[in-house]
Amino acid sequence: MKHFSEDFNAHFLLFKSDFVKKGFVKSDIMEELLFINPDYPPIFDLEANDFNDTLYKFEKIKHETENQSPFCVEVSRLYVLQILYDYNRTCEICLLNSDKLINRQYQVVYEFRKLVDKNFHKLKTVKEYADIMHLSSKYISECIKNQTGASALSLIQNRIILEAEFLLKYSQLTIKLISNKLGFTSTSAFSRFFKGIKGISPDNYRNKQEN
Questions:
Q1: For the HTH araC/xylS-type domain, which residue ranges apply (predicted)?
Q2: CATH class of the domain at 153-210
Q3: Cβ distance 160 to 182 under 8 Å?
Q4: How far apart are CA 26 and CA 72, in angstroms?
Q5: pLDDT surpassing 60 at residue 83
Q6: How far is it between the farthest Cα atoms of the chain?
Q7: pLDDT at 149 over 90
Q8: What is the pLDDT at residue 102?
Q9: Are 79 and 65 spatial neighbours (Cβ–Cβ below 8 Å)?
Q10: How many CA atoms lie within 13 A of 191 on its CB side?
Q11: Which residue has the higher pLDDT, 210 or 54?
């Protein structure tokens, strides 16, 4: 540490990936949060408010760990998730606002994901998003495949499934109401969609969570 000044201070957060994957956030979402994009800047400045907020979360995790209060693990996990989301959001903003030439495909993927997160309950096809973005479905699909390794359609479907799982686990809504909320034309259409991806019907999935 001889190369650092006396006022240098660092906080390290060490955890295994399984620690955050035990929460209610879907596993593949966590994989994305834990993945370090090679285009992300290794060092970046934070605004004072963001810095203080991040420091607070680190200190809360330390407090929970040292005091072993009830639900300390669950509370710490939530703080870690917040830090991961904050980190990814800050890095993406740094990339998009960078003076250097930003990878066009990365910009397309970034915009596509924002639109999906906002409209997944009513837009179900790549073409619908392509029309909004004034791009071809083929180009968007190529960008997403190159940047993430996944298909554009799978990003849409995974977002719908994530919401469906959350509603089935934590709400008292009927399958019919969940189907309507997610923009499906019928309960049977929603059930076919859910079972096609999860390999289990919405009813059986809910019952499994309750047992």
A1: 110-208
A2: mainly alpha
A3: yes
A4: 21
A5: yes
A6: 66
A7: no
A8: 53
A9: no
A10: 12
A11: 54
